[in-house]
Write a structure and sequence with these properties.
By secondary structure, the chain is an alpha/beta fold. It contains eleven helices and twelve strands. Strands 3, 6, 7, 8, 9 and 12 form a six-stranded parallel beta sheet that branches. Helix 5 runs parallel beside helix 7. The structure holds zinc ion (ZN).
Length: 308
């Protein structure tokens, strides 16, 4: 606690002017340092920028969590360069992973990959030498900033169900795999949904937490104002709560058109995923990224075909 040189203070009244000036300077430095420390404390009301947030964002390239550089974070906030290239990364779409479907409507059964099947699928990826990447990794590879590992595949999970944290996350973590989780920010923390604490824990373990809008409306049918708030509010909520910049949007029910794409671009996203099938990630279609749906009770042979 005692700063070096402060012992000299006791002799202040008897010493010449020069040490007195030095003591005054020391006091000023201490005051400035204290002010600076308070200015940088978490209590500050200044909003962090995307680049600041990027320092805390994590990626996961198979060998362990790795932070993106500032240049990479800047790229994730910018359109792809003119010389961007296509990459071969199958993007798989999951919703629920559990022993039984949640009480979430008539489609939940078909959208719930049962736990033993999911374990078998993840073990298959590991055994066959696949490497899971986030969509940010794929984007940086398209931009020429980062090489992709061999046999790269991206796992995505829609809707933010609690099973994603309780069932899928431990299975992924145990195998050092990563996934991108699209959450509906209005319902984060609601019954049957993941909480912000859980999402922060997942992000710290290398998972990517991204936007599935604020309240999951069909975006092609909402007003311009609602469209803008659905995209911006969810993006800023995730940035504030999880510390991860929103770079990819997941269209609710796969509904999008040119107006929705333009709004997503304006809100700061650099890509978006659909529910349409297909495999290739090309620079000309970053707001129409296709995904392969992993159906409930899909035989392992069928799963193998999806990632080939
Ligand atoms: Zn959805």
């Amino acid at each position: 606690m005692t700063p070096p040189g402060s012992a000299g203070r006791g002799g202040l009244p008897r010493v010449s002017r020069i040490p007195a000036v030095a003591v005054l300077l020391l006091v000023l430095v201490v005051i400035m340092a204290v002010g600076l420390a308070f200015g940088l404390s978490p209590g500050t009301t200044e909003a962090p920028t995307d680049l600041d947030l990027g320092v805390r964002a994590v990626g996961y390239a198979g060998g362990g969590p790795a932070r993106y550089s500032r240049a990479e974070m800047a790229a994730l906030a910018s359109p792809l360069p003119g010389d961007a290239v296509s990459v071969d990364v199958p993007v798989l779409m999951y919703h629920y992973v559990d022993a039984a479907p949640p009480p979430a409507g008539p489609y939940a059964d078909g959208l719930t990959v049962r736990t033993p099947d999911f374990i078998e699928e993840m073990d298959y990826l590991v055994e066959q030498g696949y490497h899971t990447v986030t969509l940010a990794d794929a984007y940086l590879a398209m931009a020429g900033l980062q090489p992709l590992p061999d046999k790269a595949v991206a796992l995505t999970f829609d809707d933010g169900g609690l099973d994603n944290y309780e069932v899928a996350f431990p299975i992924l973590k145990q195998r050092r795999l990563t996934g991108t989780f699209f959450v509906i920010t209005k319902t984060v923390g609601a019954e049957g949904q993941m909480t912000w604490d859980q999402l922060r824990e997942m992000a710290a373990a290398g998972m990517s937490i991204q936007s599935h809008t604020f309240s999951h409306p069909g975006l092609t049918g909402v007003s311009d104002a609602r469209l803008e708030s659905e995209l911006a509010d969810s993006r800023s909520a995730i940035a504030e709560a999880v510390g991860e910049p929103g770079y990819v949007l997941c269209y609710p029910s796969g509904a999008y058109d040119d107006r929705v794409i333009e709004a997503a671009r304006s809100a700061g996203y650099v890509m978006a995923v659909t529910t349409d099938g297909g495999a290739s990630l090309s620079p000309g279609a970053v707001f129409e990224i296709t995904r392969a749906r992993v159906r409930a009770f899909l035989p392992l042979g069928g799963f193998a075909t999806l990632v080939e």
